[in-house]
Amino acid sequence: MEKLFNKSGKLKGLILVVCTLLSTVSYGQFSAEQDTTTNVAPQPEETTVAVADSIPEVPDELIADRLKCLEKNVKLTFNKKIRGFIDYFTVRNRHYSVVMERRKRLYFEIFEEALKRHNMPQELKYLAIVESGLNPKAISRAGAAGLWQFMPSTGKIYKLKQDQYVDERLDPYKSTEAACKYLKDLYNIFDDWELALASYNCGPGNVRKAIRKSGYKDTFWEIYNFLPQETRGYVPQFVALTYTMNHMQDHNIFADSLEYPIRFDTVHINQYVNLDMFCEQLNICKDEFIKMNPAIKRNYIPDNYPFHVRIPSDKSEYFAMNKLTILDESSKRAGDEIDDDLAQQPVQLASTKPAENKSHGSATPQKKKVYYTVKKGDVLSKIADKYEVSLSDLKKWNKLKGSSIKSGQKLTIYKGGLVMEKPTLAKHTESKKKYVPQKKIYYVQPGDTLWTISKSNNIPVEKLKKLNNLKSNEIKVGQKLIMS
Fold first, then answer.
1. Can you give the pTM of this predicted structure?
2. CB atoms within 10 A of CB 143
3. Closest of 57, 55, 56, 64 to residue 83, by C-alpha
4. Residue 131 annotated as catalytic
5. In order of start, what are the domains of the chain with their CATH numbers?
6. What is the pLDDT of residues 171-220, one digit of tens each?
7. Within its chain, how far is the Cα of 247 from the centroid?
């Protein structure tokens, strides 16, 4: 072991490179050590997967040759930065690679089928490891979610439903379909897979900016120094994980167990169903049900909410034969769910008589008053989306004239309710006034470009620029855009 660590100081040098990289680069949005919620996560005592004596020394020339053999449609460059990441996954954190080997069979078949259908490179499946560590429930601090880490706004662009009952960003099939479409759109912009991958991480606007700053160079490594710091490590991680997942055995890395997907059939439900009771009626484990249906956010499916639920294939015949009984038994509501249903309904005023109120306003009852402390990088429109309230209401509640907010500022939010409005006296002359349509406003969020905004709002880029008197495609986070 002493010989291994002292030989020409080579391994010490490599570890120093890796440590330096770790101090400046985040390894995706999720890591194996952070996954304490899923039963495939390794136990702490399993952290040391292999002793140093069993870690083979692999020369640069051999790794470069292996990457060349793996390279098909996506360029797999070899350099010192790539080597540093490869050493991280094959030397320092072999444990992470073991966990990825355990999980890959759960999702790779889904990825491969979708990529083939879209005529896209199969190696793009390794991007989900960089994004989420193959955890469909992964949620980043910025609010990105699922295997492919879609932000709420981007998810909506690619038709991923998000409401109080469902978040399709967590659905492996639907999010993979959306990821393929998004990656294909990015590739069509840059005609280069490395730049498309970089854009997936930081947005096409930041990549265009890096291209301009570099003097209009057109490859990832030529614009590397002008990209955001996280993105500089993003593509190298992808290359390193592509190598690692194909050459684990060459580095004496072996998974002690493997996870396989549960074969399922899909059944249609359009009535209230308590999921605990539903699982009990089908005699299936609730954890197993959640793994098949990670997009469901609540412990029940509400009334008149058409939903396709996945159940184990070996239970589909039993369900078909006993459907009415199963659904009837599963429709008994728990008390907390009845309250939750009521909370989702609009509150009706008990009387139409004017309320005697010190504020002399119309009192619209609010359901829940909460406070939010603004953090660095927060945008008002993003906070409104998070709490599912309108931007105009959020401004009214906090007496904000514009959209500027400061770190540490405390905001009042009425979840699910409306603000106390001041009365306006009806005037006879109002009926004679001309109707003035309200302007539709959008506030730019991190990662937005004119192209993504125009696509999500079904408005041509040129019209968007004309409405806002824009001379170029440059926009800033928090900037107000007139949409109509």
1. 0.63
2. 16
3. 64
4. yes
5. 2-251 (1.10.530.10), 264-343 (no CATH), 362-419 (3.10.350.10), 436-484 (3.10.350.10)
6. 999 999 999 999 999 999 999 999 999 999 999 999 999 999 999 999 99
7. 28
**Catalytic pick among 45, 57, 123, 131:** 131
If you ran DSSP here, which 8-state letter would residue 37 be given? S
- Nearest-angstrom CA–CA distance, 296 and 338: 18
d(C-alpha 344, C-alpha 337), whole Å: 11
Q: Which amino acid is at 290?
A: I
Average pLDDT of the chain to the nearest whole number: 79
Q: What is the DSSP string of 138-181?
A: -B-TTS-BTTTTB-HHHHHHTT--BSSSBBGGG-HHHHHHHHHH
Cα(151)–Cα(148) distance, integer angstroms: 9
Which residue type is seen at 447?
Answer: G
Give the whole-angstrom CA distance, residue 233 versus residue 339.
47
Pairs from 235-238 (Cβ < 8 Å, separation ≥ 24) = 235/194, 235/197, 235/198, 236/81, 236/82, 236/84, 236/85, 237/25, 237/27, 237/28, 237/85, 237/130, 238/126, 238/127, 238/130, 238/197
Question: In whole angstroms, what is the distance from residue 258 CA to residue 104 CA?
Answer: 9
The helix/strand/coil state of 131 is: helix
